[in-house]
Design brief:
By secondary structure, the chain is mainly α. It has 20 helices and 4 strands. The chain is globular.
């Protein structure tokens, strides 16, 4: 197009838009003005060398879901439509990613097992929701969130191709994990203040789900060990702050299993920093709890130390038949039975009704469980997830969904093993191991709790997995002696 003609067209459009905005502002309508201002800021950021604007937005979501947790997840961003932070971000990020793919600034889906597994997960759920929406409406869409949150994998994988954008995401995660122990302690001491006064549109700024807090603290524990610019003392202090909170709260047993699994990957990588640090922190924590039990002169079986012992032992009590003597842990056996009965109920119902395609999104997976567990709970029970992403997959999508879940698990194992073989001799691979550590802590927790069904865990997991995927691909290519994939180009230059 002729440059002069293009200038005239742009000027006329701008003048017309300015008149419309002026009219709206005069009538106290600011929606279009805000939209144009944000679009102008976005375009300006695209032209400036540095992190992309969607990287900053995604970083904000990571911080929000870790520090704000359930409170942040319930924020409604608009008064005229129930738009939540994750869904709003997903709309913006997906739109921008499609535009960049169309302009060939970023490639499409990589041809590796992990990308194909995530794609299979999304396809399996999307095909199922087409039929379920007609039967269950909004309930089907709410349950389908377990699937569409996986889009954050591809969004993060594309963003971390920018070095500057990758640094923003990594630093946001580090900052949130560093601040979490303090913010959680403040919340635990002043819960009523946050629930009644410190709120946004009636939703508390901080509102924590304890099992997710424990998972985040353990994820941060590993992440801190990958920051080589910090001194060993600083890394130890950061990790110790998280462990101190873990010893103080009723931490999730699923998160403890995630901790063990991730420690195993570090051992396979022959990186012993987390092991050495835990060899100091755990005995120190036990010593402090033992000292407090003696000073308070309480029955040792009612002490915090004994409660934590029973908490850990209960992990192996699959059937929940063991008797627990600590008053604080009297419930854990029943909690294990709660999960086991729910898993069996979902598996039996899905197998009887539709083993291939499952019960669908929107179906109440708790109905048969309540009948088998405690019929008196009917009417007061609102949970929709059977506390395991594997049983959620089978219950919602049958054997097709379970196959997609197992494919994803196998792909994660394979790609992590490739990364581990590089980390053994290359310190530059440690940041990628940090992303994998976050992924494995959350993924393992999701197998025994509600993590990937909601945005608090899902957004962070899929983002970390996408970053780990790109980092692993780049390191494997480098190790094979092949030319590295070029960084993303944009108007601000090569980053």
């Amino acid at each position: 197009m002729n440059p002069r003609l293009r200038l005239w067209i742009a000027s006329l459009v701008g003048i017309g838009l300015a008149l419309v905005i002026a009219w709206d502002v005069a009538n106290e309508s600011y929606g279009l003005a805000w939209l144009c201002a944000l679009l102008a800021l976005w375009l300006a950021a695209e032209w400036i060398r540095g992190p992309l604007p969607d990287a900053w937005m995604l970083a904000g979501l990571l911080v929000g879901y870790i520090l704000g947790n359930r409170g942040f997840a319930q924020w409604v961003l608009t008064s005229w439509f129930p738009l939540l932070p994750a869904e709003a971000g997903l709309i913006v990020f997906s739109s921008v990613l499609i535009v960049r793919m169309a302009r060939k600034q970023v490639p499409g889906i990589r041809r590796d097992s992990l990308n194909l597994a995530v794609l299979a997960w999304i396809i399996a759920g999307t095909v199922r929701i087409v039929f379920d929406y007609r039967n269950y409406g909004f309930d089907a869409l709410r349950d389908y969130a377990t699937i569409y949150y996986a889009a954050f994998f591809f969004i993060a994988q594309a963003l971390v191709r920018h070095d500057a954008s990758a640094r923003v995401l990594r630093r946001a995660l580090l900052a949130a994990c560093l601040a979490l122990p303090l913010s959680y302690l403040i919340y635990s001491r002043l819960p009523d203040t946050f629930l009644t006064r410190l709120s946004f549109r009636g939703v508390p700024l901080l509102f924590y789900k304890d099992d997710l807090v424990a998972a985040y603290l353990f994820a941060g524990f590993f992440l801190f060990q990958t920051v080589r610019s910090w001194t060993p003392a600083l890394r130890g202090m950061a990790a110790a702050s998280g462990y101190a909170v873990v010893f103080m709260i009723d931490s999730s047993r699923a998160a403890l299993v995630g901790l063990a699994v991730t420690c195993g990957w570090w051992a396979l990588a022959r990186r012993w920093e987390p092991w050495r640090l835990q060899a100091i922190l755990i005995p120190a924590g036990i010593s402090v709890l033992a000292f407090l039990a003696v000073v308070r002169a309480t029955d040792v079986r009612q002490s915090r130390l004994f409660a934590m012992y029973e908490h850990i032992v209960s992990i192996a009590d699959v059937t929940g038949t063991r008797t627990y003597e600590s008053e604080d842990r009297a419930f854990v056996g029943d909690n294990n039975r709660f999960r086991l009965i729910w898993w069996r109920s979902v598996a039996d119902e899905a197998w009887a009704a539709n083993p291939a395609l499952g019960l669908g999104f929107g179906h109440d997976l708790a109905a048969r469980f309540i009948q088998n567990y405690n019929i008196a709970m009917q009417g007061d029970f609102s949970a929709r997830s059977p506390h395991s992403i594997a049983f959620t997959a089978f219950g919602r999508m049958g054997l097709v969904g379970l196959a997609a879940f197992l494919f994803l698990t196998a792909a994660m194992v394979r790609r992590t093993w490739l990364l581990v073989s590089v980390v053994r001799y290359d310190d530059a691979a440690l940041p990628v191991l940090g992303w994998w550590s976050v992924s494995w802590v959350l993924f393992t927790s999701a197998c025994f709790g509600v993590v990937l069904e909601g945005p608090m865990g899902a957004v962070i997991f899929w983002t970390a997995l996408g970053a780990a995927s790109h980092g692993t691909a780049a390191l494997v290519v480098k190790a094979d002696g092949k030319p590295a994939e070029p960084a993303m180009e944009h108007k601000g230059g090569r980053i």
